[in-house]
Write a structure and sequence with these properties.
heterodimer; A: mainly alpha; 2 domains; 6 helices; 69% helix; B: mainly alpha; Rna Polymerase Sigma Factor, Chain: A; Arc Repressor Mutant, subunit A
Chain lengths: 189, 188
């Protein structure tokens, strides 16, 4: 333990220290400085005694607070409804996202397969890969739809959880946004 | 014996769909909040404010920072609602004990004369607190009814710690003067 010298408390500091000691917030060092001050200061000893007495009178005679039970019952009932509402809202949002992703995937597949262009651009995507990717995304969207409908089974091959599904959809949306106009060579089918 | 779940565990249970976990949070924190609110807005309005506070908490729990202090957060919500009520009813004097407090003060099975004496005593104590200057009373009630530490009080009221301590000191001095007669009677 360090034995560093410390400054003696003033009466004003001692008053604050008394309150902090009373609320169990005083450090050991502060308590020790307070004890030192009180041993030497009769006025602060009196002050400490008066503080204890006043707080003691208040605490002994105040009316104990008994929060109403009916408020508790109402709270539990209404908060259960609130949680149900929030869960339904979240499910509706997921369902909406699924529908949008599904529609986007279908449109993309349609655009990729149908858009005629005489010349391929220098870096045209591989059509087979693109179709495979759309197919995977559609599976992800289906699985997410199952999840939103409550029929999703954990551990499915496509998804391991809703977070992964949302990640897949986010990635898919990014891909959509990044897509250049696709050109399909005439000889590809 | 099972361990008592802490506030964070109760919040997680509630967010996981266990509404009774919110009831457990109420059991833990409502007495302190109700004691404070009763002294600020009167017992009748304290019930409404208490319910508003917990409903607001229920709505915001998914955004609540679990590392924070639940009681302090609830007091911040409760204070804001209590102050709204006080502002709304203008300068009308805050009631220390409301009408419905009469009922709460009754303890069936105890001596009726003792009831009367307890009620008078509690009324005098509450009145002595009610006439404290607002800033001093706020710190006093947050400490004595809410059980907040002075550091938590300083954070809640956004004032320096020394200011909170100074308000408490002045509150106890004034209360001592207001309760001097009562303390004498109790000593006799």
């Amino acid at each position: 333990m360090s034995e560093q010298p410390h400054e003696a408390l003033t009466c004003s500091q001692a008053r604050n220290a008394l309150l902090l000691q009373e609320s169990a917030e005083a450090s050991d060092a502060l308590r020790s400085r307070l004890a030192e001050h009180l041993s030497a200061c009769a006025a602060c000893r009196e002050e400490a005694q008066a503080l204890r007495s006043t707080l003691g009178t208040y605490r002994t005679n105040r009316v104990p607070a008994a929060p109403p039970l009916q408020v508790r019952h109402r709270l539990v009932r209404e908060s259960a409804a609130l949680r149900r509402g929030k869960i339904l809202h979240a499910q509706a949002l997921r369902l909406g996202a699924t529908a949008v992703a599904t529609a986007a995937a279908v449109l993309l597949a349609f655009a990729v397969l149908m858009e005629p262009h005489p010349q391929p651009p220098p870096h045209a995507p591989d059509i087979g890969q693109l179709v495979d990717r759309v197919d995977e995304d559609l599976q992800a969207a289906d699985a997410l739809l199952d999840y939103a409908n409550g029929t999703y089974a954990a551990g499915s091959e496509t998804l391991t959880g809703p977070e992964q599904a949302m990640e897949l959809l986010d990635a898919f949306a990014s891909e959509l946004r990044a897509l250049e106009p696709v050109t399909i060579p005439e000889n590809s089918t | 014996m099972g361990t008592v779940p802490d506030d964070g565990a109760l919040v997680r249970a509630y967010l996981g769909g266990d509404a009774e976990a919110l009831g457990a949070l109420y059991d833990r924190h409502a007495p302190a909040l109700f004691g404070y609110l009763r002294a600020r807005v009167g017992a009748h309005e304290a019930e409404d404010v208490l319910q508003d506070t917990f409903m607001q908490a229920a709505r915001d729990l998914d955004r609540y920072d679990h590392r924070g202090k639940m009681r302090q957060w609830l007091f911040t919500l409760a204070r804001s609602r209590a102050l709204d009520r006080i502002r709304r009813r203008g300068r009308r004097r805050e009631r220390a004990l409301g009408d419905s407090e009469e009922e709460r003060l009754s303890h069936p099975g105890r001596d009726p004369l003792q009831h009367q004496a307890d009620r008078e005593l509690a009324g005098r104590i509450a009145s002595a607190v009610a006439v404290l200057p607002d800033k001093h009373r706020e710190v006093f009630l947050l400490r004595e009814e809410g059980g907040l530490t002075f550091r938590e009080i300083a954070d809640t009221l956004v004032i320096p710690l020394n200011t909170a301590l100074s308000h408490m000191h002045r509150a106890t001095l004034a209360l001592r003067a207001n309760l001097a007669d009562l303390e004498k009677e109790l000593d006799e």
